Amino acid sequence: xxxxxxxxxxxxxxxxxxxxxxxxxxxxxxxxxxxxxxxxxxxxxxxxxxxxxxxxxxxxxxxxxxxxxxxxxxxxxxxxxxxxxxxxxxxxxxxxxxxxxxxxxxxxxxxxxxxxxxxxxxxxxxxxxxxxxxxxxxxxxxxxxxxxxxxxxxxxxxxxxxxxxxxxxxxxxxxxxxxxxxxxxxxxxxxxxxxxxxxxxxxxxxxxxxxxxxxxxxxxxxxxxxxxxxxxxxxxxxxxxxxxxxxxxxxxxxxxxxxxxxxxxxxxxxxxxxxxxxxxxxxxxxxxxxxxxxxxxxxxxxxxxxxxxxxxxxxxxxxxxxxxxxxxxxxxxxxxxxxxxxxxxxxxxxxxxxxxxxxxxxxxxxxxxxxxxxxxxxxxxxxxxxxxxxxxxxxxxxxxxxxxxxxxxxxxxxxxxxxxxxxxxxxxxxxxxxxxxxxxxxxxxxxxxxxxxxxxxxxxxxxxxxxxxxxxxxxxxxxxxxxxxxxxxxxx
Length: 492
Description:
Blueprint: E1 12-20, E2 25-34, E3 42-45, H1 52-65, E4 69-74, H2 91-94, H3 100-105, H4 110-127, H5 132-141, H6 168-172, H7 179-185, E5 195-200, H8 215-224, E6 230-236, E7 252-255, H9 261-278, H10 284-292, E8 298-303, E9 310-314, H11 327-346, E10 382-385, E11 397-406, H12 412-428, E12 431-434, H13 440-447, E13 458-461, E14 473-482, E15 488-490
Parallel strand pairs: 3-6, 3-7, 4-5, 5-6, 10-14
Antiparallel strand pairs: 1-2, 1-9, 7-8, 8-9, 11-14, 12-13, 14-15
């Protein structure tokens, strides 16, 4: 039995090979990153074209092979490519996912372009010591899923569980407002990497001065998650916008090519702070020199657990990097999973669902906004059921989705919500009025003293506060039809 290569050992993340800056060549020495070092978290910075996404995908692939849980927040849509793994590395597997326009732009028809792409991936993996068997193991090692809040393309996320006011202890504890943080604190302590939170493009969520809602829980995770084996990886191409003081406890920095001297100065500031926090020495001049010579796919790894920074060239990823996925492509990738979920929940859907007075039926987890169970409502919240105005089509089923209706003014806080909603509508929304000479009298009656004759052919006027009378408010169950692909249409 042949001995496994070093990068196949548990806990060794194969991210690439070491880079020789003087000769500008890739060496034969693999760059293996100790996964437990991620419990002290990591930051990845690099301008567009530095191949930062490839590095982060390879890290997530290695985590999946080791059985490490990963929650990936993907703001650009690139990381859905992790589902594009083809063990056969054949043109047939690549064909549905290639960019046909890119091939045609090069004068290559789609079938030939798929063959070229498959050949490119086979040769790329072999050149980095990887074989098709590793791709197959990656695919079998993890349950990859794409969740799409606010969309039925992927799997939905249910955020709202109850309209009841949270306990005062939860409201007062700002550090417990994140479910991931709560899950982390419920785990037993460990020095190994148990789970990974990766956020692609942290820009706007971790600024140096402002404090958006996500920043406080993120700071808490950076301070406390290590004890529970949870690592945080943050990536950005805008290092100037990062709060480097908040990142002082980050153990590893992966730095790619930077665009401006200002970016380099900010990164050096962050590295210096991280070194000081860990008690490590920091040679600013040497670091400046290293950053100046970085090219595409070449990164500098500054790890406080290592004696010195390392230059390395990223490996070929096993996932097909075809770029951001469209909603249609996401729906295709998740269709089988949504279909299996629909089959398990179909028996729970009542034939009378949606009729006034009937209880809401359990709906598929693949329907965005639908509920798998009836939520607990606070006292005084009225529950309504909207009757469908049309029947569901053939091969469609009817589900109920919760929606907000009106405003309950029985609690003191609701009065303030009403004022803020009214102010928002008054200041932000606009209403279009169309001039019609034959109906001028009717328009004047509706708008009071409005001078209709002075209006152009089309005009926009702000709604008056007196026109907005929000009186009551509750939970309304709305009927929708859902087909086998998870596409939903309203029936009301």
